[in-house]
Amino acid sequence: MSARTARRLVWSLAALTLSLLVLSAVAYLSGSGWHLLAGFFWAFALIFLGVGGLIAIRHPRNAIGWLFLTVAVASGLGEATHGYAQYWIEGGAGSDTLGKAAAAYSNVSWIPFVVVPTTFLLLLFPDGRLLSHRWRPIAWCAGLSIAALFLTAGLAPGPLEDFPQVVNPYGWHSSLQSPLEGLAFLLFLVAVIGSAVSMILRFRRSRGEQRLQLKWLASAAATAAIVVPIGTLGYDVWGEFISNAVIMLSVLGLPLASGIAILKYRLYDIDLIINRTLVYGALTAILAIAYLGLVVVLQEALSFATQESDLAVAGSTLAVAGLFRPLR
Predict the structure, then answer these.
(1) Same structural domain, 155 and 290
(2) Is residue 96 part of a domain?
(3) Range of 11's domain?
(4) What global pTM score does this model have?
């Protein structure tokens, strides 16, 4: 593909993604209004669009740029359909057929921006090629898992998860539904594990600049791998919104780190960033453990004087605040 053709294709996909996002904004504002969670999905689309566009223009033969652009378009379509479905449900206006179809697609629109970064990105990073032809079965598993997840989630009968008041118009009652869901999960699991192993092997064999590039992605992936489970467990502790925000922000580190590594912007700063991340991460963990420990100890010590935990919490906060400066 020539540089001119690549540039034209990038701008076309960018225009399509931005048009879809504008349509979603119009739909939201015509209904119950804009909600903050939509802003995170906008961030997903725009970051994948920006990073993918830069990579595709500068390195048109690198498949990662085009994968990111595909994720951006899919995210934009997911937002547009979600906005229209919400407008159709709340306002009762528009086509029922289109509204149900929009709700059905919105319900499965998470698949591209979850599966692609966790499989194809790890398989192809940083040059857009597989480690060797032996990894093609893993790439096939990743591609088939996307198709299988769309198929099983799209044909699942009953109310839609995102819009429980809408029954899936494409729902299919069949004894094959459960086996197909199991197959889709198995393909995805094989693809994720295989992609991670591929990246580890690539890192062990890498030297020089490629090793620095892999460090960028490995750091972002490790952060997401730690934050996503914690955020998932925290749904009942600090609420769905904060958990979703933390999870999405951690996942956004993957395309950003990939763009920095492939475009080689401040590539050699990675060792300093890793060092600071480890130091401040350990400091945060120490202070959190100290805070929880002091709350428990002070609650027990002051239980004779008060039944409330306010005094224990206040004392623990002051103690941890006093520890912060010398530890830093």
Answers:
(1) no
(2) yes
(3) 3-209
(4) 0.74
